[in-house]
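DUF6526 family protein: structure, please.
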Amino acid sequence: MENQTYKTHVRMDPLYHYVLTVLLLATLVVSIINLVRSLNAEENVLQAVLLLLMTVAIVIIAILVRIYPLKSQDRAIRAEENLRHFVLTGKLLDSNLSNGQIIALRFADEQEYPTLCERAVKENLKPKEIKQAIVNWKADNNRV
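Here you go.
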């Protein structure tokens, strides 16, 4: 596996991000067109409405299927990084760090992690700035 860096750390699941997204958007567009045509022809309106409602429901499910595991993963990362910080410094993470900052900090190796945590709080660094400040990148290959 290629070494992870700031430029290569983003993970895309082609089946979800490209295939499913395109299929859902196409289905949504086609169901809207079908509803408009049914309304104009005054035929099969109920079926067209049901098709659109089902499509919207499936789109919502697809979004939630992605969001819920990410929320769980964020909680796990926060706990892991809090433990990591405690092991390295004897103190818990600063409560002023946002979830986004903590998630970005997970890529810092042990030598620069405590210093970068302090800097993130003092300078209110954005997650992107934290990732760009990391010198020795620690790969995270277990992401969802």
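Notes: Residues 54 and 60 are 10 Å apart (CA to CA).
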